[in-house]
User: What shape does this take?
Amino acid sequence: MGRVMSRELSIGLGLRAQHYSHVLDTRPDISWFEAISENYIGIENGSGGRPLKILEKIRENYPVVLHGVSLSIGSTDELNFEYLKRLSRLIETIQPEWVSDHVCWTGVSGENLHDLLPLPYTEETLKHLTDRILKVQDYLKRKMTFENVSAYISFDHSEMTEWDFLSALAQRTGCDLLLDVNNVYVSSINQGFEAETFLLGLPKDHIKQMHLAGHSIGENCLIDTHDAPVCEDVWRLYRKAIDLFPKTPTLIEWDDKIPEFSRLEEEAHLAKQIWMGLK
Amino acid sequence: MKKSAIALRDLQQWMKWVITDPRGVDEALRSPNPTANAKYPERYTEPEISACGVLLAAGNSKVEDRLGIYAEGYFARILESLEADFERVRIILGEFRFQKLVVDYLKAFPSRTINIGEVGKYLAGFITDYEELKEIKFLSELAALEWKMIEVFYSNDSKLFDPAILNQIPDEAWETLRLDFDSSVVVFDSIWPIDLFWEIAEDGNYEFSQSSTPRSFILWRKDGIVHFRKSNAIEKLLISRFREQDTLSNCLDAISNSESESSSSEDKGALVMEFFSNWVAEKMLSELKIQSSIKNIR
Assistant: This one.
């Protein structure tokens, strides 16, 4: 399979099924795409089906990053090697620029809640994640990238801030970080911390990618719904993030109430202006 | 920061319980050890070690409201996935009854899969024993068919053979011909007219009658899309024999020995060739082998 060579990645878009035909037929001028790994690993004993075939075609023309939601790196269950096997097969097929997942847990006792659940920031958690990330990186033979999640609760027994936790995790495992700017904003409102302080506390050398997305306003909190444009406050925070971590590849996520591709391109255009320091 | 020791595993088990309790967060916290729910008590019972005291919600928010966001998200996400995978079942049941089905299904079969798209794996079997929907006799079969379509969609890839190579088969080698089907090809038997399931109106109106003997249907994936059509006993037998690596000659013998309307061997041969042509056109075949050259032809 021929693949486009890596180049400087600027603003990418999350690849969604609604836009497959448009991307294949018109080859829009987008720097790169991020694909949700689970949409292409198929079902148990199966293949990735048609979605994987489409992703392979898109990969011929664009750099692709794989972004997972099921690694459950923070779970106290055993690591799921069936998942890692399927992910490894997908990596082999797609040859992504990098592979990411979340600093969270998604299930326990064998059950999967299919959500990105928050962790307490304790030394116990840090040791637990360090051990598991090292195992995953060893199994996949590559450095992983981990994203900060939105959280609606925090934990009284946390011993450090989220940014200190992420920094320590990156330092101990060598993993990279995916800075979700919207998640920082949502959590800062929900938990009452300064979003900028979060950014200032991150290790510059480990910021591999950023995410931008929209959220919705719930009762007394913000909800990370990815169903709206990026709001002005998040754009403002992104400008600060780009000042701190210039030229970091950035992705626009839009997962629900997905608009026409052209609307995503508008968001990407605005992000590009900021990314280039023009706005 | 204040330290209240709770092990990470205890915290996760408690959060799993409160987020997935079918009664919702408020009721779960109000009544963490109910005795009335005899079935699936583990879904309603708080783990021994509570994490309630270590959770924080900033500002004016209450912890239970914040946990409610996770609980709503848990159910909504799985419901959305099952609605997409069991579109016909949902139309028949309507929104409310489908939601009730999903709530009860998750009590018995909480997700244990990596991929949310696999949560519906056991739904057909669950419906078979589900008293509340017993009156819709074909419902479990419809659910089984919809799940089968997902399995066909994600079946492993096989290399399709090039029809042009048929011209390379010497006349004397046809008898020794062996076929392999694409791994997506599945025969589905039903006493219900499953081809009519797709004609159910959006309001859920339907009228089906079962037949005394099962009818066969074939599902397969062509160009990434799942197709299905009616089949019959002879085609089913042929697919089964070819999959057991029988030769064309043996397959012809097999259908001669089976009950069928056509009688002469010429008729049977013509019938097999008709099936064969269809399989080629429908891209169901992956490999042809002939004995004389001991080679595979694709």
Notes: The CA atoms of residues 151 and 184 of chain B lie 8 Å apart. Chain B has a mean pLDDT of 88. Residues 63-85 of chain B form the longest helix (23 residues). Chain B is about 40% helix and 10% strand.
